[in-house]
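Changelog note: in this version the structure field was regenerated for every chain. One regenerated record is shown below for reference.
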Amino acid sequence: MSVEKTAAGSYRVRIYHRGKQVTSRTFQRKKEAEAWELSQRALLASGAWTNPRNGDVPLGEVIQEFLEERRGLVSQHTFDTDEANLRLHVPTAMKRRPLASLNRQVLRRFVNELTRTKKYGTAKRIRESLSAVLAYAVQMEYLPHNPITEVRLERGDGTEDREIRPFSDDEFATMLEAQRSVNRPYADIVEFLRETGLRWGEMKALRVADVRSAPFPAVFVSRSKSDGYPEKQTKGRRSRTVPLLGRAADIVSARAAGTAPDAFLFRAPGGGELSGPNFTRDVHWAATAGTHRLHDLRHTAATSWLRDGIDVKTISVWLGHSTTQQTVNRYSHWMSSDSDLAAVAKALDARRSRTTDR
């Protein structure tokens, strides 16, 4: 018998696996003890069993274990992002809770609070960091499953989500003119980013040797360098060739002339590495770009290519997206807008023809 009555009148359950006691628990009522025993035996039989005592470990301790294990296994940028998300945005009271108490209700309240107080992209990244910790807890047999996978992240009312916000042609022209008046070399970099759709770190990592002239002017993108971090693979982990459209070819040619092949293509005025904060300060970004972010230059390139009729698969390659579907999901609003305009133009032409025939 694994359920036995104690001298105090309670009922102790001992769970054995392969002849060895793996856990035990005491109940006041025999039916509760028997029900728990059955549930533990079922989990053992299915291979989904974890020691219930492991669930007593506080979340905060598991976060520290998780971070220590990941140190050196992921990029420093990824590590710092997870560390900051978990340190700054997971409440202290929640970190003190035993893992077993992080049920669907607790996690739903946490995720809903993120939705109310953070931009959607920020909330999504915080949730992903916590999910990674709980997935680690499953691997280490602290938990039988990851409970946050059952909690959906809502998009909120949409007022905080500025994921896609390209410049209009007039906005970009006005901004570029103002930036040229204060720092023309840096304004050229702004124009380059808008023409190529490169991410800031990808532009920083370009070498002179990455410039291609045949079969068309282009740059070969294979690395990225975030401010303050070592160089690494691009976000999509795929190298790609991006054409130099508009004035981008002239800008690159002027930068590469007389420069060693292994030198950075874009540099700070003194020859050192570009710094994002210094760059935006020196082009007076806040005063000239309004509410736009530097990353909106990438969105401007993508939506401009769509308007020019370039097919989505090609745009996906130029942007370095992992799949064409990722491009469709991100820019479908602009794609549908173009088709709507074409449909309206067709309808107006048909109406004019009918009017003329009368």
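Spot check on this record: The chain has three domains: 3-49, 59-150, 169-290. The beta strands are 3-5, 11-17, 20-27, 211-212, 218-221, 223-224, 232-233, 240-243.
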